[in-house]
Amino acid sequence: MENCIFCQIIEGKIPSNKVYEDEYVLAFHDIQPVAPTHVLVIPKRHITSLMELAPEDHVIAGKIFSSIQTIARELGLAEKGFRVVNNIGKDGGQTVYHIHFHLIGGRTLTWPPG
Q1: Per the database record, which ranges form the HIT domain (predicted)?
Q2: What would the pLDDT profile of 54-66 be if each residue is shown by its tens digit?
Q3: Catalytic residues
């Protein structure tokens, strides 16, 4: 998707501060962090939202969650805990229509976020 900012990051057209990359997934630091650690985890294939995941996307979904585990361990979040957030649609707060997961940690998180 040529107008998708995350697709442009995947293609290297827009720089990012990468923390993880494999065949299926790219993860990078959010440019507007809400906590000391705030990483965006995205599939390399454009999928608009969680509601657009198809049964054949089970490998990608598994790779996303496996990479979140790896990143959390590497960034020292696994022992104390962290939050994973996925916003879906306008009312859910989704602003970039390429499925992505926010990996947030590095401090005690409150609910609701803020």
Answers
A1: 5-114
A2: 999 999 999 999 9
A3: 100
